[in-house]
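FAQ
Q: What does a multi-component entry look like?
A: The components come first, one per line:
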Amino acid sequence: MVVHFLELAGLALRNLRGYLLRSLLTTLGVVFGIASVVTMMALGRGAEDEILREIDKLGITNVILNSVKPPASKSANETRNWVSSYGLTFNDQIQIEETVPGILHALPVHSYTERAWEGSRKEDVLVKGVTPDYFVATKTGIARGRGISADDERERRPVAVVHQQLVRSLGHYGDPLGFTLRVGDQLYEVVGVLEDEEFRGLMRKALSAPARAENEVLVPYSTVLTRIGTRSYTRASGSFQATDIELNQIIVEVEQQGHVVPVAHMLRTLLEKLHEERDYELIVPIELLEQRRRYAAVFNVVLLLIAGISLLVGGIGIANIMLATVTERTREIGIRRAIGAKRHHVMIQFLLETVILSLAGGVLGVALGQAGVAAMEWWTGWEAKFTLDVALWALLVSCGVGILSGLFPAWRASHLDPIQALRYE
Amino acid sequence: MSDSGELLIEARDVHRWYGEGEARVEVLRGVDLLVQRGEYVAIVGASGSGKSTLLSILGCLDRPGQGTYRLGGRDVLSLRDDHISEVRLREIGFVFQSFQLIPQLSTLENVEVPLFYAGVPRRERHARAKAALERVGLGHRLSHRPTQLSGGEQQRSAIARALVHDPPLLLADEPTGNLDSETGKAILALIDEIHAEGRTILLITHDLAVAKHAPRLVTIKDGEIVLDQSTRGI
Ligand SMILES: Nc1ncnc2c1ncn2[C@@H]1O[C@H](COP(=O)(O)OP(=O)(O)OP(=O)(O)O)[C@@H](O)[C@H]1O
Ligand SMILES: [Mg+2]
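Then the predicted structure of the entire assembly, as tokens:
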């Protein structure tokens, strides 16, 4: 007949219950340690997921070129010349398609901001002239209707693909397909509805989309160029300003993922040759991804360090209280030993107490962490991802903390001399 | 003193002292004690003469500073700690002078402790502990804490705990010290009963009436056995 492990656990539990408040206070260090780590992990993973999704959306085999306003000094001169002209050119796109090997295509995008209106309702929109391949290359999903077709492009049709939300905010609540969209002095027929999706930080920046992605109007590239041209006018401080940007964006789709980095390198060299100033930017999602992974690695190390320190502190707290408890219960230990408890019975009993304590702390910590995650999401709008494996790790670690912090007190308890322990007052 | 039978306790030249050098206090100075299996021995002596110290050594709780001690033929002093625990658990029931009940546990749970470490299943544990407590007349105090018991009730709980696992050797340090004469008599009758079952009993007492109850009387003075007599026929 052997003393059942569960019986000892029951004994340990009983003792802890006897000092409920003290037990709770003792385990607080572990609770907060685990809670903070769980929260941080969830936030870290949430951010990671979000960024991965965004990078994936940009297209892992894409290199994206955007026109950007060049540094102030030079453009100030040009402003006096009434027209400021900068950015990617038609020639860039042709050069890329013709000279850079290993690419599927270089998709031109020309966009301009304008105001869409219907009656008295107005919405600022970003009209984007895109080619049919744009939808595939950027994984832009069509919920209903169709995208821009080759025929649209060839015949320069006045058709548009928009978000349903835009049509709604212009006061049309019926079927958006077939709706005639007025943008400035242009009329477009809505032929497709874009899938709703969440555009966030990086994505928005990379695609130079307006703050509200619902206000994108995708139209055939050829239609925009023939109807509007490349010049756009804005009223700034009383006088008109004209900006001449041939292409706002070029999306270069690379054949193989492994070639993205060398292609990006070639594009950099090519554009440096073609442009006198930095009036473009080059976004390589795969590089962002790697950079992101490096950040994540650093983040994880820091996280681990914080976790380690807080759990160390928590563990020391438990060990400290357990040492006091052992002293306090010297007599009980003496009695148990005198009656026939073996050293390992006493050892296991005390170890179980610290493990249960610490595990309870872990469970509370995970719960608190989850609450923390929910609160953080609610306050900041950040995305967090709570996964089961984090919870399991947390419990495993707190179990380990329990064992480590209990070892010395338990050893001490089990090596008390019974006869002296019996005399202890 | 029966000459036949098997030797259970064999303590020879047992010395025990506390402190070293100048401060050294000799408590036992060469005690020789042989007890056959099935004997009933009462130990008497003045306060501070070393009775409890001797009983602790015989109960494998304490070790002599010098001398040998064999229990049931085994040299217990050379055993590993775990093995000694096992001997205490299986072969000895000990009634402490100061009861030594665990204050956090109820009376019933206190009595269950030896069975707990013997690995007896919960239900059987309850039943046996309850029976032992009924035997000492405490069947109505099962859920009381030691602090809620009178001195005599605590003493009887301690006796129940020493008997619950049916040990072949019962060592009792003043088991009737806190009892009125009626209850004391009942306990002595119980010890007689246990003795009649064939168990070996050593008890310490101040009460000469109690001492006369035992067939053999050992008198200790200043850490030495000064008298070892059979009381049969006195
Ligand atoms: N841990 C100790 N340290 C120092 N001296 C001790 C210790 N334990 C016992 N003694 C001494 O040993 C002597 C014998 O003690 P013991 O408890 O054996 O006496 P006793 O015969 O049982 O007395 P009583 O009848 O009062 O219980 C005492 O004088 C006591 O002071
Ligand atoms: Mg004594």
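Q: Is there any commentary attached?
A: Sometimes. For this entry: The longest strand of chain A covers residues 103-118.
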